[in-house]
């Protein structure tokens, strides 16, 4: 198999901003396959071929190809595994994500240092933030769980729980005084709190519920500690708090133990998309600048969001010093209600799920298309779909899995294409093509086409919520075109600030 892999690396690769020499590209990827004991295993030859079709480029499966010895690989290497260790094991002539610098190690999963570094470049690009340690500098912290941990009690006493809740309420009051419009409170090494629905923000934060979660988790942690580890501030306890999956444990635990590990970030008035989700775009970037942009939530038309966020981040990136430009990550750009944009996090050192085609097959292939300088086989297939007649498009959509992909699912074959993913791409590309020559008549025709395609899929979809989502996505396309026409009309007006009569497609 190795010989076939080496031969396949000599495929045509265009010169791009990320591959200026047109070098062959290889991906280092984790194995998505498990054996009967639940451990990762080596893919079979057939599974490997399917993975390469999904990723759109030759792959090396981390931990199973070439053994454990470091290997030098000709061309550009893209690590979709933990970068610092990945570059040590598999090093290319060029590495898109290179995690060997001192600054990389310092920035990795450190939201506060990330904020400080960016502040030196631009004071306005991120929301104002402050450490909890600064907010609490004039307060005393009389609460300690030391006696509880050294006692034989299984449960935290009610009196202590009441004290913990009172302390948390007092802290929230200090935060609200500093940020009257609201704030986010987070552990500086925390990630995926939004995906896990564990965001902690004022004034909505519930100190009673957070205290209950904290006490329940601390009781479990204590039951798993033995001997001298059962001490308040013991290394084992600190490690258990760090590794907890609960944001409440991080926040309350480190407010008591080490408040400089908790930061408070000003809450922004973030706009909403047409389906009511936050208007937030992830812009993945490498040492050559921004690579790809993806709307993080919902199913609104993405074209305008992605373009504006990409351009906005690119202007920010160009201001960075050389040492910072060498870093990589995923910037979360948000659109505010006043029309401006901010970046709430840069996630230095993180490889976004939008780059991994086994998790998000269409964004992953768009990412590789940008790196390769040519469409991957999947994107070529989707572009053919865009150019088909409506009935042929409906026939092709009928071949897909009739639902959206679940978060716990992995794409292991090109047959694992879900209707939601392809329908989103097709709708956005059709709207994008219309925008090249926008007319009211063309918008009306495309709106009818989108509704026809959506209705053609309803009989195959069993879930009523998914049926409504498919219809809504068609409606969002119509509304996006209407908004585009209205903006053009206002722009051409002699008085752009004056209210404009709304156009209607029907």
List the SSEs and their pairings.
Blueprint: H1 2-8, E1 25-29, H2 45-55, E2 59-61, E3 71-79, H3 83-89, E4 90-95, H4 102-107, H5 111-119, E5 129-131, H6 132-135, H7 146-150, H8 158-178, E6 183-187, E7 201-202, H9 207-224, H10 235-243, H11 247-257, E8 262-266, E9 280-286, E10 289-295, H12 303-318, H13 322-325, E11 329-335, E12 341-345, H14 361-372, H15 377-387, H16 390-397, H17 419-436, H18 440-458, H19 464-492
Parallel strand pairs: 1-2, 1-3, 3-4
Antiparallel strand pairs: 5-8, 6-7, 6-8, 9-10, 9-11, 11-12
Task: Name some characteristics of this structure.
globular; alpha/beta; 506 residues; single chain; 19 helices; disordered N terminus; four-stranded antiparallel beta sheet; four-stranded parallel beta sheet
